[in-house]
From TrEMBL:
Enzyme kind, highest EC tier: oxidoreductase
Membrane-crossing segments per the record: 6-25
Reaction(s) the record says it catalyses: a D-alpha-amino acid + O2 + H2O = a 2-oxocarboxylate + H2O2 + NH4(+)
Cofactor: FAD
GO biological process: D-amino acid catabolic process
Gene Ontology annotations for the cellular component aspect, listed alphabetically: peroxisomal matrix
Residues binding FAD: T196
Name of this protein: D-amino-acid oxidase
Organism: Penicillium citrinum
Binding site for D-dopa: Y243, R306, G333
Gene Ontology terms, MF aspect: D-amino-acid oxidase activity; FAD binding
Length: 360
């Protein structure tokens, strides 16, 4: 049987993971077509800016929880056997303050802040901290082994694994999703996988207005944090957060942050940066040996826009003219920690659609 031509639009973590999993099946010729590729840094391209880590915020019993659960299995295997992927284990501590209840951050983290979240039987070494282990001002906390992903290593690693499986990469900009049919005049495109993230809100033929940015501002420093820390909220506003994680292989420590829905601003806010650094030093004194933010050795200030979709990640297929479209976008801040589960669901739809098409 002739190869089926599949084009994946988008080279973020969703697009690359979907292309990689699809490339493991025979009978497909896969092309990743994207405006931005790993190595690029652009506000439209969320994946390079991410922390990134595994701290599930998906609710118990949802598809999102299943996608997160499936992804942990892969990340665990990569951390054990493939350090070149830029993924490493790190102790994670989630700290809860009772006065944050009802805040935007606490609502976002509701499952993560539970004393018995669904993932307690998924991640290693889960436990609740005793009262005498709590940091000052913290009412309760959980601890478990997580992973942190150095995106500067992981995204190129995904590309390299795709290339091993003969996936083709092309730079392309599409005004409308059906323009994919013109990508290569010598090939007839059989199916498109839409992994355009935030740009799904602007891509013709999709224009999903339920996708909005959730602006995240971070500071990357050379100071080393020995553990990952996340707080239930801050005293500086509902749309600000406090989290700390150290990337593998000298990737620096990421401190954040913010969760500013509807905000497209690409430039760092220096006042927010100061608040981020003050919160991080207070939550993790080891960063500066108990000194102030002036001893933080800053690598860069950065802003990324999480592609948040009302109703959660869109993974579904539709027929558009003669072309099948499979969508995989809108994971918000869960893009990495749900990446393999979402990609597996998308690949299942791709294979089902092409099987139907073959019968027709």
């Amino acid at each position: 049987m002739a190869e089926r031509n599949v084009v994946v639009i988008g080279a973020g973590v969703a697009g690359l993971t979907t292309a990689l999993l699809l490339s493991k099946f025979p009978g497909y010729r896969i092309t990743v077509a994207a405006k931005h590729m790993p190595g690029d840094y652009d506000i439209e391209y969320a994946s390079p800016w991410a922390g990134a880590n595994y701290m599930p915020v998906s609710l118990r019993g949802t598809d999102a929880a299943e996608w997160d659960k499936a992804t942990w299995k892969v990340f665990h295997e990569l951390a054990v056997n493939h350090p070149e992927s830029g993924i490493h284990f790190q102790d994670c501590e989630i700290r809860n303050r009772s006065n944050d209840v009802g805040s935007a951050t606490a609502n976002w983290f509701s499952e993560l802040l539970s004393s018995a979240p669904w993932f307690k039987d998924v991640v290693p070494n889960f436990r609740t901290l005793s009262k005498d282990e709590l940091a000052p001002g913290i009412d309760s906390a959980i601890k478990f082994t997580s992973v942190c992903i150095n995106t500067a290593l992981y995204l190129p690693w995904l590309v390299s694994k795709c290339l091993e499986n003969k996936v083709v990469f092309k730079r392309a900009v599409f005004g409308h999703i059906l323009e994919v049919s013109n990508l290569d005049p010598s090939l007839e495109v059989d199916l498109v996988v839409n992994c355009t993230g935030l740009m799904a809100s602007k891509l013709g033929g999709v224009e999903d207005q339920t996708v909005v940015p959730a602006r995240g501002q971070i500071v990357v420093v050379r100071n080393e944090a020995r553990k990952m820390v996340n707080l239930s909220g801050t005293n500086d506003g509902d749309d600000e957060a406090c989290y700390i994680m150290a990337r593998a292989a000298g990737g620096g420590t990421v401190i954040g942050g913010s969760y500013q829905k509807g905000n497209w601003e690409s430039q760092p806010d220096p006042n927010l940066a100061t608040r981020i650094m003050k919160r991080a030093v207070q939550a993790c004194p080891e960063l500066t040996g108990g000194k102030g933010i002036e001893t933080l050795d800053v690598i860069r200030h950065a802003v990324g826009l999480r592609p948040v979709r009302e109703g959660g990640t869109r993974i579904e297929k539709e027929r558009m003219g003669k072309l099948w479209i499979v969508h995989n976008y809108g994971a918000g801040g869960a893009g990495y920690q749900s990446s393999y589960g979402c990609a597996e669901a998308a690949v299942k739809l791709v294979r089902g659609a092409l099987e139907v098409q073959t019968k027709l």
